[in-house]
Design the sequence.
């Protein structure tokens, strides 16, 4: 089939990293075609707890990038604090019974580089943030006042309004797509129905599928992606404002008064279906909601309304992968476990590199070639 659309950039992936990059490119004056396998936000973006944070231990470069990511969300929040899908009401972490030193070490590390971190015993937590059952905290908790959360499907919808206003072209439900190369250089994308979309540059932001997409061209990106699920409850009627990260459940508020829940203890119970989709047993969903109820003041009965399972994008070494492929010029990748926190800043910095032809120093540690060289 002959080429269909010629554009400056073809972006492959309709999650937050792909949509953010596409919008930032359009803002810079590029013409953009955005190609998605299914509907927008139908992959990991649609089942992310999307906790906005730079907590815990990681490299200095990764911490700085996450802090810049939070900064961009703060700018967005300041423009309209009434949005119910973006809030900054803090995050709370605690460890399992008998593991208070783990929380204390986390707090000390955060304090050492100026990350806002408060260590609290159970009786102090209600004065810091509402809606938590103090009895659920075995020893001490770490409260990070500057953290927040975002509902990524709502953010994608918001960004797509600008995408459309700026003249971007969306090709949805395109199925499995491939990056096309000629003489060692990317020049477009071919979709499942053999339609071809030519472009000067290509961005691969396909979540957990990103390593497989570029592997066709002899490029290795270590993949540590694992299975995960997100549960959305019915309206919860609780006062929780912070994101909770606890030994048996993670929880955050969600638009409309519901809660979003996830964790990792049930990963091995997620089932991959013959058609490539994923399912999670209802009894696991129920157990997670019960675990979450124990975290909340008054222990309200939570009812699961919906749930989704799939692969959570995680590079093999845990650090993000951003930038142009040396072995396939004109092809850029965006692959990260922290797609929510980095969603806005990653799109901004990748678009800078694509439009200017210069490498941004904040992405220097996250180049794809670190895997092949290792």
Sequence:
């Amino acid at each position: 089939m002959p080429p269909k659309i010629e554009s400056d950039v073809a972006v492959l992936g309709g999650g937050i990293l792909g949509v953010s990059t596409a919008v930032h490119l359009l803002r810079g004056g590029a013409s953009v075609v955005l190609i998605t396998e299914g509907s927008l936000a139908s992959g990991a973006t649609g089942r992310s707890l999307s906790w906005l944070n730079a907590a815990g231990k990681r490299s200095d470069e990764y911490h700085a990038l996450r802090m810049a990511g939070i900064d961009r969300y703060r700018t967005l929040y300041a423009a309209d604090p009434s949005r119910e899908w973006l809030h900054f009401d803090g995050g709370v972490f605690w460890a399992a019974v008998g593991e208070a030193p783990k929380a204390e070490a986390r707090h000390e590390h955060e304090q050492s580089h100026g990350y806002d971190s408060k260590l609290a015993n159970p009786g102090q937590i209600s004065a810091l943030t509402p809606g938590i059952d103090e009895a659920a905290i075995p020893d001490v908790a770490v409260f990070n006042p500057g953290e927040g959360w975002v509902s990524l499907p709502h953010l994608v919808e918001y960004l797509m309004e600008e995408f459309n206003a700026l003249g971007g072209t969306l090709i949805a439900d395109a199925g499995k797509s491939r990056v096309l190369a000629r003489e060692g250089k990317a020049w477009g994308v071919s979709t499942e129905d053999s339609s071809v979309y030519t472009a000067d540059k290509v961005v691969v932001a396909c979540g957990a599928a990103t390593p497989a997409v570029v592997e066709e061209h002899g490029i290795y990106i270590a993949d540590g992606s694992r299975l995960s699920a997100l549960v959305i409850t019915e309206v919860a009627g609780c006062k929780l404002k912070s994101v909770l990260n606890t030994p048996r459940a993670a929880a955050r508020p969600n638009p409309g008064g519901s809660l979003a829940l996830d964790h990792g203890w049930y990963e091995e119970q997620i089932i991959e279906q013959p058609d490539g989709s994923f399912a999670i047993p209802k009894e696991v969903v129920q157990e997670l909601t019960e675990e979450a109820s124990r975290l909340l003041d008054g222990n309200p009965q939570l009812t699961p309304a919906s749930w989704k399972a799939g692969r959570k994008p995680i590079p093999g070494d845990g650090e993000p992968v951003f930038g142009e492929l040396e072995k396939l010029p004109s092809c850029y990748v965006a692959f990260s476990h922290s797609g929510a926190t980095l969603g806005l800043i990653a799109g901004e910095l990748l678009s800078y590199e694509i439009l200017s032809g210069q490498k941004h120093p904040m992405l220097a540690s996250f180049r794809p070639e670190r895997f092949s060289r290792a």
Q: What stands out?
A: The chain has two domains: 3-46+153-224+317-373, 87-148+225-312. The two ends are 40 Å apart (CA to CA). The longest helix spans residues 60-79.
